[in-house]
Amino acid sequence: MDEKVSHYVEQNRDRFLSELQEFLRFASVSAQPAHRPDMRSCAQWLIDHFRSIGLEASLVEGDGHPIVRARAAGRSDRRLIIYGHYDVQPVDPLDEWLTPPFEPTVRDGQLWARGATDDKGQVFAHVKALEAILNTAGAPAGEVLFLLEGEEECGGTVLPHYLEREKDQLAAGTAGVVVSDSEMVDENTPAITYALRGTAAMELTVQGPRRDLHSGTYGGAVGNPAAALAWMLSQCLNPAGEITIDGFHDGVRPLADWEKENFAQLGHQDEAFRQEAGVSALLGPDEATTLEKVWARPTFEINGIYGGYLGQGGKTIIPASATAKITMRLVPDQDPQKVIQTVKRHLQAVCPDFARLTIRDAFATPAVCFDIDSPLIRSGRRALEQGFGSEPRFIRCGGSIPVVETFARCLKAPVLLMGFGLTSNGAHSPNEHFALKSFYQAIRASACLALDASAYQGTS
Amino acid sequence: MDEKVSHYVEQNRDRFLSELQEFLRFASVSAQPAHRPDMRSCAQWLIDHFRSIGLEASLVEGDGHPIVRARAAGRSDRRLIIYGHYDVQPVDPLDEWLTPPFEPTVRDGQLWARGATDDKGQVFAHVKALEAILNTAGAPAGEVLFLLEGEEECGGTVLPHYLEREKDQLAAGTAGVVVSDSEMVDENTPAITYALRGTAAMELTVQGPRRDLHSGTYGGAVGNPAAALAWMLSQCLNPAGEITIDGFHDGVRPLADWEKENFAQLGHQDEAFRQEAGVSALLGPDEATTLEKVWARPTFEINGIYGGYLGQGGKTIIPASATAKITMRLVPDQDPQKVIQTVKRHLQAVCPDFARLTIRDAFATPAVCFDIDSPLIRSGRRALEQGFGSEPRFIRCGGSIPVVETFARCLKAPVLLMGFGLTSNGAHSPNEHFALKSFYQAIRASACLALDASAYQGTS
What we know:
The structure is a homodimer.
Chain A: H1 3-11, H2 13-24, H3 36-52, E1 56-60, E2 67-72, E3 79-85, E4 105-107, E5 110-112, H4 120-134, E6 143-149, H5 158-171, E7 174-179, E8 191-196, E9 198-207, E10 213-214, H6 215-218, H7 225-234, H8 257-265, H9 270-277, H10 290-296, E11 301-308, E12 317-318, E13 321-330, H11 336-350, E14 356-365, E15 368-369, H12 375-388, E16 393-397, H13 402-411, E17 415-417, E18 433-435, H14 436-451
Parallel strand pairs in A: 3-6, 3-7, 7-17, 8-16
Antiparallel strand pairs in A: 1-2, 2-6, 4-5, 5-18, 8-15, 9-13, 9-14, 10-12, 11-13
């Protein structure tokens, strides 16, 4: 740890905090049109702030909320991109907040505000790390380029379109992307998330009769499309929750030995997890651990199902149609397009003769898994250890962060997922908060990374 | 056919029609509270009309729209009950009516109005038959008791409560019940419906996690209740639409030889039926005919299914629960309570371990099947032949008419389902109509029945 940087952070603790509070006061709720002016003011505040500490900064406009782009020159022309987002989730239910979501308050060593952990607090740790470097060491070891989007919480297109458009220019010289929008193991144990599951989605509609039919007049002679849909879904998953589609698991990469050992050492508490999920029993038992199931195995989920009469009481009809919304979580090295084709073929094959199947909105993004021995990730590991005083753990994530795959694909660069939040921080919930201790530790970790020349080596 | 009665009907054709038009002008829509005054006026008009032609008449009040009760003494103290209803369906979509629904209009030999066929036209044929008898023969062969309810279209309790309450008194001396709220084979061929399917209903809810869960965090380790429901339903029906619940078919009465022959002679047109249903194929092929399937076999229908996210686009959740609304059509001699118990036990047995099943609102009413050799039905057959000049056919009905089962159970009497409508008459639809020819033929048939002493013999 650079002594001067460390000293600078110590000296400016209170100012850093009050600046973060300023950042958090913007009600930058991207999903709500009424907050468009707040989005704009927040982006402009970031621009001004970046410039005030010595970075070039500008807005990247698109069809939605702008990206804040800021650049600090480095000692080499290799580049690290730091990704984050300045938009936040809506705040409702508002009456469950102990202090107002946009009046950041310090209490019990935590900063309470919407966006405190997701993602303004994490973003701002990187910003303050750059300020500390520019005011002490003078420059990071390579160029640092901030790309802070305003549409993470509303699923916009400005950042993906920008990456597609500028990919050649951005790829040249970029050694990696740092994303701080994930979690630590616990408040004393930082983590690097080296793999994310991908997603495949489709909507199935099974059509029976042209209109709802009287079940007394037609029942027995006309097939029921809701029954057809139930049958088809039963041919995809068995009652143990296992996927029974031929070829679905093609290519699934088995866990490496180091991963099995690592998972075991993470000390996952199944009973606590079960209680948190609110279920009487987890799936299984079988040979796979819970972490393997949620991190390294594909799934087939019915997210929604509907058809026929949904109101109070009953209605004696054969429904005209029934629909299921399906998403699958994919793992390395499943080929998303092959999975989609396999599932489509299987569903057509098990669709009863009397029904007509339509599949809409089928799309898929692959899982990602980064080599933990890349210079970037090794550097991230050292930086976290120095910043937090504790060795980081390697974890995977069962969810998908589409932007990570977009970065990896467009820039052909590794992504370091180095998050500073905790599950208990209440992201997306009332009373979101961020530990002040984590904030300052994150600044130190970020500074270590930016000052480490080997972080800029890329995979080569 | 009694000559004097026939002559009387001929002499009074125009007045009968204009009286029916008066009856049809009441907007007696039982389901719409705004029409309560119209319901009341219509019931009072019936009372006045019955009294004007020489019957005792009164209202039976209850928790809803009243029953109009009218009595004509007969030559014996044996009794026939004539059931019908004076309430009608709502009229929307109003702009599809060629002439206003409550301004009865004669066009092309048909009377066009809401209620023309369902059920005012059919009811009024019986009323005019009694008038013709009282003015010619002097009295029917036994007592005739009209019970005309005002809640057939809105599912009220006034009539069932009345029947339960008065069953002993009503049963004594009652030889049978005549219901004219069903259909003929075609405009030249009257029909007697001798069997109706029963109904069993239940609502299944499969509970998984306490709340919707993030499918990235929990997917793979936590079971999906929509998948559990689909599995359970797939264990009730196979893709050919056959019910695979052990014991479900216990007691199902096979078709008698005369029924098979009769069904074959009815000349059912499968291709027309398929087109009407709007499906690419009917269930099957198998050894059963379409009429056997819809009239004499039980069904298991999913009327509605829902769970999880039902909105636009997608949401990556494991839903907390999923629900299916189920109705079954029952046939003679299934025991409805046993069917309910069998299905409940089966569903519990196939419910995956991770899910919790709740079954709500389970109820069942049995199928009915009347002996076509009973004196009442034999008399009905003669009456229809004389009234319509054509031999009636015996048909069954795949639907359920709950009041028929209530009458049969409370009064332990046979029910003669002798309907004068046609499927094409547009009951429940815009431009409902009733053939004037059928109206006058029905008056004659009803008079024949009321004058036939053997109709009052009951089953004994």
